[in-house]
């Protein structure tokens, strides 16, 4: 069951990384994409359409992470400490705290993407989306690194 | 009457309270995964195995943010902090890096 949740954590995380990267890339593009290159087509998406999907995927992935976290605490962190891999423990600590802060940010992220705040909170919307994008990429990469060092069993 | 809830205030209060609770080591409760024990406050229970504070920190931040989102007028975030709201999560993340620096020394 634990392996199933871990796989689900990865799958949902991959979808989340894809959705937020897509939205952030499209948001940072100054002019509407007109060409047919890969980059232009990658950024030529309706950014508003990603917002709800990102909120649902993020909340779901934090919930799945919270379910498997006790197993990590017992099966992975203790061996890390015994192997003197303090930096690995530190990386995971950053992952969990960033994920928590990101969860609290979701209402603000959702609101700043609403039509009535698009102009007035443009800087907030851009920065919050980039912060969330950084968090999901950080959590995704650190999760993989730590799982490669010692996975859950 | 339906209580008013301001999403922006919730997020800002969440970031601030999470940072304070983490810095002052004040989780609402500790969870002990070895036997599934739960204790209120941050005082560790002897012989219960390694404690986990993250759930308690999230509960702290969530409860405080909920109260703030209901109590603080929404114009504070919408008008006075407009386009500076992103600084709060950014500072909270920097504070986490600073507070965890001993792992990388």
Description of the structure:
The complex is a heterodimer of chains A (153) and B (105). Chain A contains five helices and no strands. With 153 residues, chain A is an all-alpha fold. Chain A starts with a helix and ends with a helix. Chain B has four helices and two strands. The radius of gyration of chain B is 16 Å and the shape is flat. Chain B is mainly alpha-helical. Chain B starts with 6 loop residues before the first helix and ends in a 6-residue tail after the last helix. In chain B, helix 1 runs antiparallel to helix 2. Chain B has one domain (7-104). Chain A binds chain B through residues 66, 69-71, 73-74, 77-78, 86-87, 89-91, 93-94, 96-98, 100-112, 120-124, 127-128, 131, 135, and chain B through 7-8, 10-12, 14-15, 18, 22, 31, 33-34, 49-50, 52, 54-55, 57-58, 61-62, 65, 78, 82-86, 89-90, 92-93, 96-97, 100, 102-104.
What's this model, at a glance?
The complex is a heterodimer of chains A (153) and B (105). Chain A is mainly alpha-helical. Chain A has five helices and no strands.
Index terms:
heterodimer; A: 153 residues; mainly alpha; 78% helix; B: 105 residues; two-stranded antiparallel ribbon
Helix/strand layout:
The complex is a heterodimer of chains A (153) and B (105).
Chain A: H1 2-28, H2 38-43, H3 51-82, H4 86-112, H5 122-149
Chain B: H1 7-23, E1 29-32, E2 37-40, H2 54-71, H3 75-80, H4 87-99
Antiparallel strand pairs in B: 1-2
Helix pairs in contact in B: 1-2, 1-4
Number of domains of chain B: 1
Low-confidence segments of chain A, given as residue ranges, are: none
Mean pLDDT of chain A: 90
| Number of β-strand runs of chain A | 0
Q: Mind telling me the C-alpha Rg of chain B?
A: 16 Å
Structural class of chain B: mainly alpha
Rg of chain A, please? 17 Å
Share of helix of chain B, binned: 40-55%
Strand-pairing-aware structural class of chain A: mainly alpha
* SSE order of chain A: HHHHH
Distance between the termini of chain B: 54 Å
Oligomer: heterodimer
Total domains of chain A: 1
Q: How large is the count of helical segments of chain B?
A: 4
Low-confidence stretches of chain B: none
What's the main sheet of chain A like? none
Percent helix of chain A, as a range, is over 70%
Largest interface: A-B, 40 and 38 residues
């Amino acid at each position: 069951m634990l392996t199933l949740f871990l796989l689900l954590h990865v799958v949902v995380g991959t979808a989340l990384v894809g959705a937020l990267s897509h939205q952030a890339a499209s948001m940072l593009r100054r002019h509407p994409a007109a060409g047919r290159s890969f980059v232009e087509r990658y950024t030529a998406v309706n950014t508003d359409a990603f917002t709800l999907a990102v909120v649902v995927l993020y909340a779901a992935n934090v919930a799945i992470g919270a379910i498997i976290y006790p197993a990590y605490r017992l099966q992975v962190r203790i061996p890390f400490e015994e192997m003197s891999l303090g930096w690995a423990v530190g990386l995971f600590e950053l992952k969990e705290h960033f994920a928590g802060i990101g969860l609290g940010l979701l209402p603000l992220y959702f609101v700043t993407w609403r039509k009535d705040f698009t102009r007035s909170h443009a800087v907030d919307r851009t920065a919050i989306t980039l912060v969330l994008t950084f968090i999901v990429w950080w959590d995704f990469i650190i999760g993989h690194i730590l799982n490669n060092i010692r996975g859950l069993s | 009457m339906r209580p008013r809830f301001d999403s922006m205030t919730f997020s800002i209060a969440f970031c601030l309270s999470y940072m304070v609770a983490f810095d002052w080591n004040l989780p609402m409760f500790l969870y002990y995964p070895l036997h599934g024990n739960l204790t209120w406050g941050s005082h560790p229970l002897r012989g219960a195995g390694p404690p986990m504070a993250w759930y308690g920190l999230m509960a702290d931040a969530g409860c405080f943010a909920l109260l703030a989102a209901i109590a603080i007028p929404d114009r504070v975030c919408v008008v006075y902090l407009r386009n500076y709201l992103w600084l709060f999560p950014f500072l909270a993340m920097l504070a986490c890096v600073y507070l965890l620096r001993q792992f990388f020394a």
